């Protein structure tokens, strides 16, 4: 089979090599990648022999292996080195400006960021105008990349970041007479960047680029590292800002941190400055989220450069919400209850009275414990059903899916870190008082829930979709059956044939349970997303951890961990939807 | 081809399923992994039909794909979740004990570590006694895993860690009347652990375990996370210890850091205590290295669980050192010069006199700049030769190699971080004085050299070995030629046939240059390994960065970054040796 394919490719090659002008060739002809792409592009750009094109399509898998190997070539390596260098330089600059505000000021950091943003925009314009215009540039689209929730999140957080930039401009215009103009220039550049980048990812997130691959790889890692440096800068700025504000009920001395910010002789020329400043710091978390979303999309695009995908593997599944009722009903109840307690919390926590604030914390903790317990319970049921359920694991390789799983697990790390640090602090101080005890239970349940949910989602994504198995059952073709049963011949026959019994309309009880669990978890994740995304920060309203770790460190932990936690919840919602569809 | 293989596998299966007793089956029969392994084990343990075994051997690649997919199953996931949980809990405990020495003391951390060490040892004993004894457990060995340099490094650093533990025991026995007994128990347990673990990796590092895979995966991630937690604890302890010692020429106030250590009323009962304490802190870097080495080996073993390797892909290449002369000669010169300046540095830096110390720093900086420049230059020559050289890239998938490359790039991150933080500090303070200027040049050249060397090594490892190409030339089999030339048909024929011209004995100039470059870089990396590994710490002897970032932060950066840097140099030596052999 392999040698046949090779011969066909070679024949096609010989046929075309006389017809195709040589100027399409870029770079060194010795580069395997270019050669393979040439093959590929020649087949698709001017197909005089349809059978050849068919053959090439059929053997896409073989060529893909070649291309994937070529990933280890020059462009891949160079783009990696560029990414590492920008990231570490950015990290050094950001920490330098945080720890030593004399020699490296925010202005230096912002100049560096402006340069990065301009370079990235230049590349994006170049890509949009030059590369993607050519017919051969994007022959394939990865239907898994840039899903709707990521695109929608990008636009939503992009708009809120834009608002932040507008507030920033308005604030720093008032300081222009005594502060650097860079502080106005940076939000202007960033606002333009937000437009360009959001447009770029909206249009091109699914591209599998085949032309100028080396340049595109470098451009995408530039985008990735720019977003990560912006993320680092935003996290640091927010942490520093939080340490500046005197906390209401925390008797930690802020003198040490305030020393460097104390000499603010520069006064704003108009009175609304402080309001604007308050407002834009409130919008920082959205900008942090935006950078994370954009980084994820840039990374997926980078992985897809030079990939050849066969689109037909994407099954369109109908979404039939009528199949389930208990899960969504409980989920909606939970969302409504969560919203109510969230509003009570937000109102009460700002009050001066200690009793009101403690009540707000009490309600918030109890609500979260209830949510976590119900989620853990339902996930456990789901996991048990998986053990009983003998569906096959998916056999085909799916880079986007493994990337998705990686992002999911990576993002869950943020919430894991916050919870474990809470647990250690609370256990070490022996969790005195009902609030501490509740906080500890919440943290322990969160760890449990995260572990279970990760297991449930990954296991669910790796199972063969039910409708595929039904198709296999409907085609009562002996060969198709054989392929499916290939690995399960030692399983006794009544078990392997069970998947053929359910009829089209009535799902069996295992599918039903899985769907209910998915629907419930999906809605629960939505409320767990809403609460921290729109301002619930019990981590700062409750003093135990702050006292234990000192404010600066705790602020760093929460400000790094929480945005990942929020990203994790959104990602979970999307993944659970997918699990729902294939269950 | 695929369907034929499937049919053969099924036939084999049916043949055996009657003969094999069912009690070999562990876990759920629905698990694909178990099923596939069963196939495999059945084929190899009692082969009644040699043609069947042959067929199975031949189609190992196909089965491997199935097994690799099954990696995403239960054990893989569970072991990952265990690893994350232990790591983050360890991280929280270690930071808790570093930042808050009241509620969480070193004793708590050490109790946690003792539990981890005991659990890991228990698993290792279980593995050695139960799993690996069974005949079917380890049918395959990965010849790439656990190379000699890693094994040798593990033993060397293990011995030095053992020395550290002995000193620790001797010290804390003197404090027994007023301090916790845990401080004596911990080094005792760790010493036993060092023996058990070093033996374990010495014997089992190459195993591709096929039995109890889920348990083995969990055990290996337990080993991995234990080593990483030990590493974290050691790094933190060393950083805290360094901030305790008043630096000679640094006028940073240590009051803040000393506050928590000031109340040491507990006195040692014998006089040599302080000498022991001095000695064991000097040995900390070796323990840090040991943990990193062990982590790397545990990770490789974890990746190899359930893998089926065909050993015949390992070519034995003769090492003929006579082929090259200029590179090794220059390299040896560099090593000797480096050793001389290193000794001068170590002697002079301890003197009270400012002039002597500055001279020592001057010599050290100049020597490092010379080494880095020569290395960058030779690596650039090597990279140019790669561009001229049209050897094919390796087509077969090699997980150990990609892991190796990952470890190489990951470890280089440590040196990158130190260099970039230096650059930022020096540029921000405008690098006044000759020492600062030299330090800056050194840092910039290091970044350049690291980037180039990473490129050179990865590119070298991904090229088809020369001897393989010669073999292809010697077998003047038309089919073999066709397979090789498969992708290069559009390259004109004189280029693609060049690789067939060199005779067996006299390498052409390109090979010669590559070998010279490899030999030179190898020796240069050895001296760059020796200097920091045996105590050269210009990062702490030169005050600019300490003043800029404050001592605590700079100590953390160097103590995390430098061990990775040392690991990187050793890894580079091994990789360059491999590149030398295949060039």
From TrEMBL, chains A, B:
PANTHER family in the cross-refs: PROTON CHANNEL OTOP (PTHR21522), PROTON CHANNEL OTOP2 (PTHR21522:SF35)
Membrane-spanning intervals of the chain: 76-99, 111-132, 144-164, 184-203, 279-302, 323-345, 365-386, 407-428, 513-531, 551-568
Keywords: Cell membrane, Hydrogen ion transport, Ion channel, Ion transport, Membrane, Transmembrane, Transmembrane helix, Transport
Membrane topology value: Multi-pass membrane protein
One example GO MF annotation: proton channel activity
Homology family: Belongs to the otopetrin family.
Predominant location: membrane
Lineage: superkingdom: Eukaryota
GO cellular component: plasma membrane
Protein name, per record: Proton channel OTOP2-like
Keyword Nuclease: no
